[in-house]
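REVIEWER CHECKLIST
Item 1: Sequence provided? yes
Item 2: Single chain? yes
Item 3: Sequence as submitted:
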Amino acid sequence: MSGNCAIWNPSRGAVVVYGAMLTSGVTLPHQAFIARFLTEAGIAPAQLSPNSYRVLMSLWHLWKQIGAKYPPTLKEVRNFYTLGRSDNRDEMDIIAGKQDERIKNLDKVS
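Item 4: Structure as written out by the authors:
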C-alpha cells in the first residue's frame, strides 16, 4: 500500500498500524519496551492512540538520557501517566497525572 491510505476492512490476519506510530520511532516488530507495555496493559497495538505512542517513545528516550539501563516498566509509566479511554471509544490514551506528583516521583526513577 502506498501513502496515506486508510484500510477500513483489512484482510484476515493483517496487521494495521497508524502512520504516527512509525514516525514517532515505533518499529515493526515492536521494540521490546512497546510490546511489553501493550502486553502488560492488556491492549492491542491499534487500541493505543497514535499520540500515546509518541508519549511512550519520548519517555523511553528520557529514560536513556538519565542513564537508566532498562526502559520504563508499565508500573513506572503509570507512576507518571494513566491509561484511559479517548474520545474515540476504540482507543486508549496515555494521560498525564498530577504535575506535583510527577515532579516528586522523578527522583525515584534514577
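Item 5: Key structural point noted by reviewer: Residues 101-106 have pLDDT under 50 and may be disordered.
Item 6: Recommendation: ____
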